[in-house]
Design a protein that fits this description.
This protein is an all-alpha fold. It has helices at 2-32, 37-74, 84-99, 104-112, 119-143, 147-176.
């Protein structure tokens, strides 16, 4: 039971961090390219679903490969390991939940017709930084490292992804149009 909780927390952190980073990168890149909110929402939601599935498949295959390698190494099957399906479900759920955070304001803007315009990006950044801090905190619990260090690393990686994608979006928008 403890191993399952630890493994699923690891997969939750892994999936959540990737979900937040990739969706945040899409949001900031699209904003850098001056795309309208409806296009940011379409790109972001398509990413969350497709990449979430991809991450879940990767987690499943990775866990299954680890178990198969261990079985070959020891020559016997270990019945005390968790199902690869459990790891993939944890990854998928966390990817979707945390991956939606950068899009929450765009969803609200669309459904409630708030007309936030460029302010939506500021709200998205704020919400996503909170999500990165939360994932960093969970990562510290899962890996038993310094909470401050883990939170700062997660925030730094998230901000770096946003800066890169915003810059690329801005440059490409100038080149293409």
């Amino acid at each position: 039971m403890i191993k399952t909780i630890e493994n699923n927390l690891r997969e939750f952190v892994y999936g959540g961090m990737d979900g937040a980073v990739t969706t945040f990168a899409i949001v900031t890149g699209a904003a850098g390219a001056s795309l309208e909110s409806k296009y940011i929402l379409i790109l972001g939601l398509a990413n969350v679903m497709a990449d979430g599935f991809s991450m879940a498949v990767g987690a499943y295959l990775s866990e299954k490969a680890d178990q198969q390698l261990e079985e070959k190494k020891t020559g016997k099957k270990n019945d005390n390991v968790e199902s690869p399906l459990s790891a993939s479900i944890a990854t998928f759920i966390s990817f979707i939940l945390v991956g939606l955070v950068p899009l929450l304001i765009y969803i609200l803007d669309f459904t409630l017709d708030l007309n936030l315009g460029e302010d939506a990006l500021v709200y998205s950044i704020t919400l996503t930084l909170v999500a990165f801090a939360g994932i960093g905190y969970l990562r510290a619990i899962a890996t038993k490292i310094s909470k401050a260090t883990s939170v700062l690393e997660s925030l730094g990686l998230g901000v770096a992804a946003a800066v890169i994608s915003y810059t690329v979006g801005t440059i490409l928008e100038r080149i293409i149009t």
